[in-house]
Amino acid sequence: MGYISELRELIGSRPIIMAGANTIVSDAENRLLLQLRADNNCWGLPGGSMEPGESLQEVAKRELYEECNLIANELTFFNIFSGEQYYYKYPHGDEVYNVIATFICTDFEGELRADQDEVLALQFFSIDELPSNLNPSETPIIQKYIQTRVRGF
Predict the structure, then answer these.
(1) How far apart are CA 54 and CA 148, in angstroms?
(2) Helix (H) or strand (E) holding 77
């Protein structure tokens, strides 16, 4: 059982501040890897919450491997995202205010394979053809990535 699950047993669904990390995986064609999440049927970035003792880089690498079967050979720090727009209420009622460290990975290896419990599908998308049902708390992250890294704003 993970740290957040143990915490939830004590406090129920009330809002918590949840630290975690995600990874923007970009392939040679500048397409973004997104995963269709099993919990809300939205497309989002591989990532998750921090366990005690982990660094944010370790979280990003662990989650990328667990959810997508990819090994990040190199991660580049992108940004920290927090604030009101990163509030999220899970379909089962748990509420969180996310503090998310986002990393970029263009150097990875492995064969894409979705985690059977958390991920319904994995797919690389062109930035001009992203799905409309993006995960709400990750939409601003993806938009900022596209503005700053791809389009140079």
Answers:
(1) 28
(2) strand 71-81
Domains, the chain, ordered by start: 3-150 (3.90.79.10)
Say if CB 63 and CB 56 are below 8 A apart. Answer: no
Helix/strand/coil for 102: strand
**Which ranges of the chain would DSSP assign to H, the alpha helix?**
3-11, 56-68, 139-145
Position of tokens 């923007």?
24
Task: Give the tens place of pLDDT for each residue, 91-145.
Answer: 899 999 999 999 999 999 999 999 999 999 999 999 999 999 999 889 999 999 9
- Encode 36-72 in three state secondary structure: EECCCCCEECCEEECCCCCCHHHHHHHHHHHHHCCEE
Q: What order do you get walking across the sheet with 119-125 strand by strand?
A: 43-44, 32-37, 119-125
Structure tokens at 129: 């053809």
